[in-house]
TrEMBL record:
Its main location: nucleus. This is C6 zinc finger domain protein. It comes from Colletotrichum kahawae. Keywords: Nucleus. Residues 65-80 have a biased composition (Polar residues). One of its GO terms (biological process) is positive regulation of transcription by RNA polymerase II.
Length: 464
């Protein structure tokens, strides 16, 4: 018989020392941790564990041991799960300990990602559970788990199962909240797999579900979906080719317009008026500055007379420079300042049409790199980081000194952040540099060649 409760170890606060070590060495290859502070436990009751792990309804659960060898697991079949749960229920534990904490960097009782996802995982064998299994398998595969299991194939199979379950339950009101969360995690899966365009399909799906079943989705779930998608979507738009964006904006039924309109409609309903200047701990940026970034993209995309653009530029620049930030600590204030400096560079490139080699670029770039280096450091604990400012700094770096500084920060982040799209952004940055080097460097008149390069490869970058 099962014990009354089974304890699953989680880490609320973590110290980073050397990679791939710690009490769970051999159990969690994606946790670059050695020691934990203030270890705490989450109790999963016997009946809850039985819901997600039917084979343990009658079988005893053995306690977790740090050095235990992982069980060999078979490929999917109608009667067998490829990630067949061992007594520690590793995929769910990975989601709870790693994935949830990486989606919501400030891991407190207010972690709405964890509080929204975990209850459904423990009560329903549906698309959300299959998606979590796919995420866990994909991370083990990406981090090179060596235990004889083909985690890459398992991730693909579970992803397909989740999408099939999602299609069959998409119209059911009772499944609306689970389906929204499934779309969020499916988007995350696509982003971590290379930032292809499919994550935008899941964005549209989540927004459509909330629009069609508004009374069936809790406020926390809606806030989570909006928080996850809106920031990423606005920053993704900054990477798009200008001419392509202009052509798309002329098409009333374009997918980008549909996403943008739906996000803004939800934002008008959900946003608190007094939060516009607050630096959000999950993004490191204020809502007001995020709106200005979006406005720059829209200003650069719209067909305008040169005089109109020159009038908009100084007005936008003044607003950006005069912004005030409210934050709970110095880290968030510095992060917001990184966003401010990057936004000024983006404004000069997109609205003023300043070439990357223009003197004003270097005047803005060096302070941005210095500001980034102040908060992306080995000795700082893992938390929200300014990915978009780092990306903008990389795209406008012309000399080796600046390139190296940007790449070093990306490598550091990739070492300390187990679940993310950092490796994709690093690949994009290296591709941009290679493209420039193979084409005899950066011409003096180039403004934003990186958008064309990203467009050629079909990336839809999530820069959050």
């Amino acid at each position: 018989m099962l014990p009354a409760s089974t304890q699953v170890w989680t880490r609320p606060q973590l110290k980073f020392t050397e990679p791939w070590s710690g009490p769970w060495r051999g159990q969690h290859p994606i946790l670059p941790l050695k020691t934990a502070v203030n270890n705490s436990f989450v109790n999963i009751a016997r009946d809850e564990l039985a819901v997600i792990c039917q084979q343990y309804t009658e079988n005893p659960v053995r306690q977790i041991t740090a050095g235990r060898q992982r069980q060999q697991q078979s490929a999917p079949s109608p009667n067998d799960s490829p990630l067949k749960p061992n007594p520690s229920w590793r995929p769910i534990s990975t989601d709870f300990e790693v994935i949830s904490n990486s989606k919501v960097y400030v891991d407190t009782e207010g972690n709405i990602f964890k509080s929204s996802v975990m209850p459904i995982l423990l009560s329903n064998d549906g698309p959300l559970l299959s998606t979590v299994l796919a995420l866990s398998a994909a991370e083990w595969d990406r981090r090179g788990a060596h235990d004889g299991v083909d985690y890459g194939n398992s991730a693909i199979r579970y992803k397909g199962k989740a999408l099939s379950q999602l299609r069959s339950s998409i119209m059911a009101e009772t499944n609306a909240e689970e389906n929204v969360l499934t779309c969020v995690l499916q988007a995350s899966l696509e982003i971590s797999a290379g930032s292809g365009p499919d994550w935008l399909i899941h964005l549209r799906g989540a927004l459509a579900i909330m629009e069609n079943h508004p009374g069936c989705v809790s406020a926390n779930c809606a806030a989570l979906a909006l928080q996850y998608f809106r920031f990423r979507y606005i920053l993704m738009k900054t990477t798009e080719n200008r001419e392509l964006a202009r052509n798309e904006s002329k098409t009333k039924t374009s997918n980008s317009d549909q996403c943008g309109d739906a996000i803004e409609a939800l934002n008008r309903i959900s946003l608190k008026p007094d939060s516009r200047q607050t630096v959000h701990p999950q993004t490191g940026c204020s809502t007001e500055l995020m709106e200005l970034i979006n406005l720059i993209s829209l200003t650069a995309t719209n067909e305008q007379q040169p005089t109109t653009a020159s009038e908009d530029g100084p007005s936008l620049e003044r607003r950006i420079r005069e912004l005030e930030f409210h934050a709970t600590d110095d880290y968030l204030l510095k992060s917001a300042e990184c966003f401010r400096l990057a936004t000024l560079i983006y404004l000069h490139l997109k609205v003023y049409h300043a070439p990357i080699r223009f003197p004003s670029m270097s005047t803005l770039l060096q302070p941005l790199i210095d500001c980034l280096a102040g908060i992306i450091r080995e000795d700082l604990p893992r938390r929200s980081f300014p990915m978009w400012p780092l990306f903008i700094a990389g795209c406008t770096s012309c000399i080796d000194e600046h390139r190296k500084a940007v790449l070093d920060m990306l490598y550091l982040l990739d070492d300390k952040w187990p679940i993310s799209n950092i490796s994709t952004v690093t690949e994009v940055m290296a591709t941009i540099y290679n493209f420039r080097d193979l084409n005899d460097g950066l011409a003096a008149t180039v403004q934003h060649d990186w958008q064309n390069i990203i467009g050629k490869f079909g990336w839809k970058l999530s820069l959050s």
